[in-house]
Amino acid sequence: MTVNAETLLLLESQAIELPSWAFGNSGTRFKVFGTPGTPRTPQEKIADAAQVHKYTALSPSVALHIPWDKVDDYDELGRFAEDHGVKLGTVNSNTFQDDAYKFGSLTHLDPAVRQKAIDHHFECIDVMDATGSRDLKVWLADGTNYPGQGDIRGRQDRLAESLAKIYARVGAEQRLVLEYKFFEPAFYHTDVPDWGTSYAQVSALGDRAMVCLDTGHHAPGTNIEFIVAQLLRLGKLGSFDFNSRFYADDDLIVGAADPFQLFRILYEVIRGGGFGPDSTVAFMLDQCHNVEEKIPGQIRSVLNVQEMTARALMVDTDALAAAQANEDVLGANGILMDAFYADVRPDLAAWRESRGLAGDPMAAYAASGYQETISADRVGGQQASWGA
Amino acid sequence: MTVNAETLLLLESQAIELPSWAFGNSGTRFKVFGTPGTPRTPQEKIADAAQVHKYTALSPSVALHIPWDKVDDYDELGRFAEDHGVKLGTVNSNTFQDDAYKFGSLTHLDPAVRQKAIDHHFECIDVMDATGSRDLKVWLADGTNYPGQGDIRGRQDRLAESLAKIYARVGAEQRLVLEYKFFEPAFYHTDVPDWGTSYAQVSALGDRAMVCLDTGHHAPGTNIEFIVAQLLRLGKLGSFDFNSRFYADDDLIVGAADPFQLFRILYEVIRGGGFGPDSTVAFMLDQCHNVEEKIPGQIRSVLNVQEMTARALMVDTDALAAAQANEDVLGANGILMDAFYADVRPDLAAWRESRGLAGDPMAAYAASGYQETISADRVGGQQASWGA
Amino acid sequence: MTVNAETLLLLESQAIELPSWAFGNSGTRFKVFGTPGTPRTPQEKIADAAQVHKYTALSPSVALHIPWDKVDDYDELGRFAEDHGVKLGTVNSNTFQDDAYKFGSLTHLDPAVRQKAIDHHFECIDVMDATGSRDLKVWLADGTNYPGQGDIRGRQDRLAESLAKIYARVGAEQRLVLEYKFFEPAFYHTDVPDWGTSYAQVSALGDRAMVCLDTGHHAPGTNIEFIVAQLLRLGKLGSFDFNSRFYADDDLIVGAADPFQLFRILYEVIRGGGFGPDSTVAFMLDQCHNVEEKIPGQIRSVLNVQEMTARALMVDTDALAAAQANEDVLGANGILMDAFYADVRPDLAAWRESRGLAGDPMAAYAASGYQETISADRVGGQQASWGA
Amino acid sequence: MTVNAETLLLLESQAIELPSWAFGNSGTRFKVFGTPGTPRTPQEKIADAAQVHKYTALSPSVALHIPWDKVDDYDELGRFAEDHGVKLGTVNSNTFQDDAYKFGSLTHLDPAVRQKAIDHHFECIDVMDATGSRDLKVWLADGTNYPGQGDIRGRQDRLAESLAKIYARVGAEQRLVLEYKFFEPAFYHTDVPDWGTSYAQVSALGDRAMVCLDTGHHAPGTNIEFIVAQLLRLGKLGSFDFNSRFYADDDLIVGAADPFQLFRILYEVIRGGGFGPDSTVAFMLDQCHNVEEKIPGQIRSVLNVQEMTARALMVDTDALAAAQANEDVLGANGILMDAFYADVRPDLAAWRESRGLAGDPMAAYAASGYQETISADRVGGQQASWGA
């Protein structure tokens, strides 16, 4: 099975946004290990992200996290990015590291805290206006640790009110994308724990409010590709946060834990019209590299998505439909597996070379000396880490 | 802490519908153990269900499963029930034991099979018209076992079409209630796997389409009381199927596996207006008794719900709101736990006696000799079991 | 990456035992769907199993389940098998379908029931003596559904006593292999729920008592390859029951749900010395085919194991060890993934043809007409199903 | 049901060790919220722990974590503790916050790192010699994040070697207790992930090596009381780390998430001889208070254990055994539930007062002004937090 020209053409349009925080140090509650060369500024993060795009042509934009990536001049930051060959993308509104939000942000019982959180989102929209970003991504750490600690129902109502105020400020060409997460950092209840909640909340807002699906944010055993198919059907799949996990929200490299699951997800994306130039679904990474190198980790990740998209595009959909119509369970499954087991890597390497890229982006980056340079140069200052 | 008069008054209106199939034999794929006295007809199931109501005054109605409980004359069946002190309730449309549905019913690729399943629901509505039942409960076994076996997205679209046809037939005083289930009997994908799917489907139908929440049908770790709160908020909680589970859909006695979870669920029911004379939320059992006695199993179950409802009604909501407003995590949790740890059983027994019931319904039933009578009488014929 | 000669040589010795029950009808507690051509006798099951071996040269033996496969003359059954090109293998002692075992078999509180179960195992050993089988496989449905129903500790002690009596009868060239399972059919506690319990029990018996690892019998998220590595290290991995699952013990085709997990398992098998002519670890399938065709389902299964074993054998272990020593996380992971993503199927098809087999066993079987023949011939009689 | 004198006598001997780190700040990878009055030194932690004992008489000792609680003079620390009415207890050997252990400690491929970790345990034993502690508790963060990153089998062998060296240094009156954990901080494989691994490792060491069971360290759905019963049966249950969880290792207050599970665990502890003056099983808390007050959080926790122990002691074991023998499933379960639902709190409060303690320790502590004092006094310096 070879990757044909039609597939390659479709792959050409693929773009996977990188998260700025992936280039900083990260870890668990037990320990954040530091590494030489870790960025200290938003600019250094963007410069690193640009390396990923340089070797893969897959990641033309970088998502910002506010306040982590706050700068005085976003025009300047935008030009910096463009000078490095990338653009600024989605703006994430972090409301989980301020002491005021210990008991909630948009859901908080205290109107003053809610307003503070709403104002923070207004500020994010200002940033979007300055950067030309399309998407405001809202992920909330809001929740409680003990039964009784909060009023689950009241919090949901307040969430709806807060989101409505934010949505009213979102521009005509902009979108609000609401991410859900099963648990963590809250351990008893989370205010947006599942796709149903995100869907109900954004449906109440309007057409430019969408759901963000993070592949690591589900209960054990959840069939994620089903949710993909459902959200596409409902017209509410706004974006993906890709990563992988064995247990909880492990934030490992996308495709690392269960490659076949990634394949099934991408197959449903394509099946449902979520891939290609006409789709508005945003593909993003949202993962971190606690023990492995960060830039190569991101390169590996976008390649994983590209390779698996190629496999998903190679499914013989006519034959599959025929086998399904014949109730030929093994035949239908076999057609899907044929594409999954196809080794697309040599074809993609050749194609990459035909476009003036290195056949092996991992090796090319390693040989470039960039890692050594930043390790030597970035000495002193405060490393951008989780809390930066 | 004593159960006060206001709580007792509220408890008086509580009604928990019993499922006819709970009185038949049931089991796992490995073995169905038979027991003496097991009903052989719908009438015998109703007679058994009436025993539960006789000793508890908690279960005035019995849910039917069609085709299991098909009879020629539903008027007669209704009179039989009333003669025994109970009414006929929800009608369940079983579409999982006909060979035609091996690859789906309302979602099937073949229009003829879909129509057969739709017609079966029409028949169920006819039964409802005859019995005066309010709710048509739809639980589907539809799904696939292998990736590729079916077209997840197409099946969802077909489900919407089929449900719309059924809903068009539902009477002005009737409701369609769509149940979701995480998995089983399908092992790769289920067509209505979560509350979000059920909610999206019934929202597209109209006001008289609601969600049924079965407490055993969720992924591990799911916060069920959150879903209760959310569905009540959205005005879409139609009914409960109560049972409990340690692992999958174990269908154990409600409250047996995690009493505190049942308490939290009932607290959110009350908090969200789902309890009391003004609520339209139906309380039902949906569980089976594989190794324990069936009638006492049902008595134990309705008592569990009653006792836990009493505890949930005893939460000092003013004090709780104050503790929440003060961000007093331990105080708020403590107020909830105070109600949970209250031993309401003596007060409820006394109240029961004051209403002319036995204080200990389990003991009263055991002493009644009913079990011995049916064991002796119900000899010969085909026991009503899972496949009856 | 091509499958080299050394790998092919190792693959030549691979043997995967088939379970006789896989050829009978099976299903869930909701429904067992029947299919034309389903075997009605142990002989017909063996004939079907022989078809799998005929097209794959991978499954030279068939496991028996007693009492399902009881016959009057095991010599004759053995000759029948050999005439069809296969042998009789492991004997499974089913103790889950007799009414006496409703509350336990080897763990039962009643000494008479325990003795009955022990005697059944003695009978199984007699069968083994007659068939020349090496392994007595013990899987118990024993457990309880409700807290308090049984005495967990006492049951464990009785289990130890019962197993000791059985082990004393096991021949010098025979083994007792104890399988564990997380849950089902028991829903609160299971008497052998995890590898630790099986290990503790068989360690107390002696050298010829081993653990059986069924790949579908673990809690969500369990790292199965770790258990493989640990049991091989402890010298107690007796055999594998292969299958796959998304949720519970789904008993799907091995490799169908998570191919990468199967790869990792097989890699640890090889790493730990569990593969090859010197290993005593038995490879078996233990799965069923509820909606798909049974013989092709088994063919697909053994091919999945073979293909994944080929990939696992292709891991560049020297390079992997070097990358691990260099703490090169991405490099080490990449080396493993290189083998996983290798498409070994063309090479294996060519090799198969070089050995006089069909390159595509699935197609060859489909073309053979066997399925049509048995569908026409096997009419009347009682289909061998789960309860057969 | 009242708490009888015999039960109260047994409760008198109950002791639950407190972890020093519970009094410091803690949190998730997203944020550690600081609170006024948080200890800055081991002494301040001990002083806080002593408050818990003062109001409950339940926590006469404090566990140390090395290096967090390193001091120059352990005699002095011991005297400080005794002056505050408590003793120094178990010593925990933290090997997860040193950069050297990024890729493992006792399992590391590099002998130099392993020796460093072994030496750290030797240092811990020196501390034990100085403090008179009985138990060296070993919990390892060792594991890997990606398949291939490490050699699972080799790491297990190295773990055995390292533990053997440490065990050889453990004194005749001391014990090595090995804790297991399902996952976190490692996300692909953990070197001691389950009780089976801990059991196999400590069994190889000798009689003074035991297993530590942390109630939050299991896969979803795991029956923890079964493991309790099994480890007691095998004579290898060394100690408990109590806490509770809804999802992963949430480290919530013991009994907060699933009180009935705590009851079942304590019932099996008592059933298996793990409670009372003759038992060597250590009861400890191992939890943290991210959003709630810390000292009251610990008071609530030890009370939860005490109250649930009282309930477990109240089970009518004779009646239970009779019901089990009669295969009376509902009766046996009912006997267990009778004890669980008993409200022991009034009796325990009265008993507490009869011993000169406050009936309501939570209220007494709140009224004491201690919290206000430490909040005012402990200003400046470095708060003892997770990384302290």
Keyword list:
homotetramer, TIM Barrel, 14 helices, 11% strand, L-rhamnose_isomerase (chains A, B, C, D), isomerase (chains A, B, C, D), metal ion binding (chains A, B, C, D), metal-binding (chains A, B, C, D)
Descriptive account of the structure:
Four copies of one chain form a homotetramer. The first copy, chain A, has 388 residues and is an alpha/beta fold. Helix content of chain A is 45%, strand content 11%. Chain A has helices at 5-12, 42-56, 74-83, 111-131, 152-169, 195-205, 224-234, 259-271, 294-313, 317-325, 329-340, 345-354, 361-368, 370-377; strands at 18-19, 61-66, 87-93, 135-138, 143-144, 175-179, 189-190, 209-214, 237-242, 282-285. In chain A, strands 1-2-3-4-6-8-9-10 form an eight-stranded parallel β-sheet. In chain A, strands 5-7 form a two-stranded antiparallel sheet. In chain A, β2 (61-66), α3 and β3 form a beta-alpha-beta unit. The mean pLDDT of chain A is 97. Chains A and B meet through α5, β7, α6, α7 and α8 of A and α5, β7, α6, α7 and α8 of B. Chains A, B, C, D: Its EC number is 5.3.1.14. Chains A, B, C, D: One of its GO terms (biological process) is rhamnose catabolic process. Chains A, B, C, D: InterPro entries: L-rhamnose_isomerase, Rhamnose_iso-rel, Xyl_isomerase-like_sf, Xyl_isomerase-like_TIM-brl.
